[in-house]
Amino acid sequence: MFEYEVCIVGTGRVGLPLGLSLVDVGVNATGVDLDENLRNAVNDGRMPFHEPGYDELVASKKFKIHKSADGIVSNSAAVIITVGTPLHNHIETDLSQIQRVLEGLKTHFRKTQLIILRSTVAPGTTTYVKKWIERHTEFTVGEDLLLCFCPERIAEGVAYKELRSLPQICGSEEDASRDAAGELFGKLAPEIMKTDFITAELVKLFNNISRYINFAVANQFALIADNFGANIYETRRLANHDYPRCNLAMPGFTAGTCLRKDFGMINEWSAYPDMLLSAWKMNEFTPAMLVEQLMERTPIHDTKVAVLGFTFKKDTDDIRDSLVPKLCRYIHRQLPLELRITDHHLADPIDEPSASEPIKNWAINDALEGVDCVFVATNHTGYGDVLKELGKTNPEVWVADIWNVGGIDQIYYQAGQLVGEKVSQ
Ligand SMILES: NC(=O)c1ccc[n+]([C@@H]2O[C@H](COP(=O)([O-])OP(=O)(O)OC[C@H]3O[C@@H](n4cnc5c(N)ncnc54)[C@H](O)[C@@H]3O)[C@@H](O)[C@H]2O)c1
């Protein structure tokens, strides 16, 4: 008999909400993670990052995270792997975290266990895991051990709701694995959809990549509209309005650890420029586009610039793969007098891996004091009101607002336009 029903290996942004949600429905779940700060926070009853809905659950201390798999994984009926799956700097899947996990777990696997791969993986990775286990252990997958790929499809910030509302895909090569995974996830998900390894892997990638392409199209249309002197928001509204065959997305910075990398897991198999690469190129170009297009209206050189928001998306504290550092580097190239960054979801200073030193995180009012232009880099709640206040006191300030937080359907405007103040244009 196993002591735990589930052990989650890698209890980060995906693994921790899953573990807590399993505990919430009465599953005896535990976790293993290498990150000491994360373990200390959770074991002390605190969320290590912003993910609404889990504060009470984590405070109950029913979900414990262990430093080592020793005695934990071998004592768990199911093992769910949710470690990171980045790309190498080149367009190439980086399997090292998965390989390291397997290496660390191989002596802990036990007969009859269910192994679930939940990280987003390149096509063929679950088959690789199956072969790896069969080479490095005495077990035959499907007979001694069960193996299923069950992708995570939540969006950060809504994990609590989506773990209970999204259908769960369970992909395996045999019924025993699919059924066992389906039974476990059936405690959370409203619907279980059973398929094979490759289909399950592709479903997850297609979900993310199609979103990524949709946003790239929206960003390209924003670029085209500006080239023609047209307004992207008005054009989009008219194109979508009561027209059943168009669903144009909003332009905006499109990045984050999922959307920015997942295209590469398929694109690496194409020798030529393709639609996925073009989408990547377009989304990666948006910071340069904002800087170039704002400079057609007002100089950045020798001015004071504020950047609002640093995270990769709205109302999160996750800066991984955010496009904002890239935007800041483009602004720096114009040699402004000062560049002030502010994000109330982050501590001061901001520790950004690609920066040579920690970045000062300004209080928002200080960041906006006496500035000449503002980039709204993330659409955090409240920025629209802040800009309206700015418009009253400093109407001439130029704003690049790809997220339309100002609500006047323009990417580039002067703050006074938000409150009907006269501006020089
Ligand atoms: N973040 C999201 O919203 C999201 C949504 C869907 C899918 N995914 C996918 O889920 C996977 C995990 O993403 P994440 O955002 O949770 O990453 P994360 O970096 O927040 O979490 C991964 C955790 O794994 C731990 N870890 C790494 N190697 C380990 C090992 N050998 N043993 C134990 N722990 C180890 C790390 O310390 C970290 O805490 C990725 O494949 C990602 O693409 C993420």
Q: The CATH topology of the largest domain, please? A: Rossmann fold
What is the approximate shape? elongated
Strand order of the largest sheet: 3-2-1-4-5-6
* CATH second-level architecture of the largest domain: 3-Layer(aba) Sandwich
Total number of domains = 2
Strand content: 5-15%
CATH class of the largest domain, named: Alpha Beta
Largest sheet: 6 strands, parallel
Bound molecules: nicotinamide-adenine-dinucleotide
Number of strands: 13
CATH superfamily of the largest domain: NAD(P)-binding Rossmann-like Domain
Number of helices: 15
The computed structural class is: alpha/beta
Rounded mean pLDDT score: 96
Query: Which segments are poorly predicted (pLDDT under 50) over 5 or more consecutive residues?
Result: none
Secondary-structure element order, as H and E?
Answer: EHEHHEEHEHEHEHEHHHHHEHEHEHEE
**Amount of helix:** 25-40%
What Rg is obtained from the alpha carbons, in whole angstroms? Answer: 24 Å
Kindly report how far apart the N and C termini lie. Answer: 74 Å
